[in-house]
Amino acid sequence: MERAAQLKRFVEHFRAGEKAPEEQAIGIELEYLVLDGESLAAVPYSGQQGIADLLGCLVAKGWSPVWEEGHLIGAEKDGVSIALEPGAQLEVNFAPEESIGQIEDIYRRVLAEIVEILEERGQILVALGYQPVTPIEQISLLPRQRYRWMYTYLGTRGQSAHRMMKGTAATQVCVDYTDEEDFRIKSRVISFLTPFMYAVFDNASLYEGEVNHPVALRYRIWSDCDDDRCGYPKGIFTEDYSYEKYAAYILDSPALIVLKDGQLSYAGGEKPVKEYFDPETFTDDELDYLLSMCFPDVRVRRYLEIRMADSLPYPLNFGYVALWKGLLYDQFNLQRLYTEAREFGETALVGLRERVLRDGTQAAAGAFTVLERFQNYLELAKGALSAAELHYLAPIEEMVS
What we know:
Layout: H1 3-15, E1 26-36, H2 51-60, E2 64-68, E3 71-77, E4 80-84, E5 90-97, H3 100-120, E6 123-126, H4 145-154, H5 161-167, E7 171-175, H6 180-200, E8 206-207, E9 210-211, H7 217-222, E10 230-231, H8 243-252, E11 257-260, E12 263-266, H9 284-292, E13 295-296, E14 298-300, E15 304-306, H10 316-328, H11 331-343, H12 346-359, E16 364-365, E17 368-369, H13 370-384, H14 394-400
Parallel strand pairs: 10-13
Antiparallel strand pairs: 1-5, 1-6, 1-7, 2-3, 3-4, 4-5, 7-15, 8-9, 11-12, 14-15, 16-17
Helix pairs in contact: 1-8, 6-11, 6-12, 6-13, 10-13
């Protein structure tokens, strides 16, 4: 298929996501571990009082069920969707809003509904970056064909891929871009801040029942999954990074799973995405599915998906959202961080990543530590947020101090 036409179709898809500055919103995806309240063991998908049963209780309370192959794998209600990760981690997705407070109000209602059910079952909803007690081998894979194929393929690509799928949980933030230049600058800034966010929001304190001594456990796991589709997108450190560059990264990546005409097919990495993508016949949903099969730290859909932080407890999770809003939606902060990002080239950032994996927040980042630089970024965000949203940063300030 003609590459120029393929690139053009992707560029059109990304351009359709552009938002006027006054229309920029922010979204959040929160992953949680559901654990037994006494043993902290992972609650399985199947069986009495399993995760499928939890979803069934939500359906009984008025949520709409999501089925696949006869299995209940999600629930939806009033713009909120609950999905399941491969190890039955609970993912709660909130539609983007201009105000963080709007999302928080919905969050508190939804989480209260979930927690009420869990308390009756002696279970708890836990914000941690990794399963604290249960060995990964004892966690069953969710009964979805997509996950079975991913489990098979990624297991050949990295030694930690199965831990990533069944054991990790994250806090993800979604931000808008106004045009291609804004897309380029925000992508570079987010990539630059990646090691800082992994270090500061490291929240995996236990590993299979033992105190976790290595820092940034989830960062380590993601670094050993699949170099073709994780980490930094190819081309992101070039001065001419663009919609087309990200499209080329997707097209040249080994195809894993392809959605076409409502059916999933397993590509298994034997050919690149460009061998499957027909720009004339693929729908927007089918194109977006190709985008979902790559997992860089900043992933492009029709928005930018920021994927670094571990699962964070309330209200720290909303502080994390406010931090990104203050850094990326303020032009002074964005340009200042872009200047700093350009001073840290790819080689310097890779070196910083290695130091973070060894020294955490005390890793050297130029003349300062990671923590000292992060404190500066926190001050930038404080200066940019409205009086109504400034208080969200207080939990981060307390944590840092």
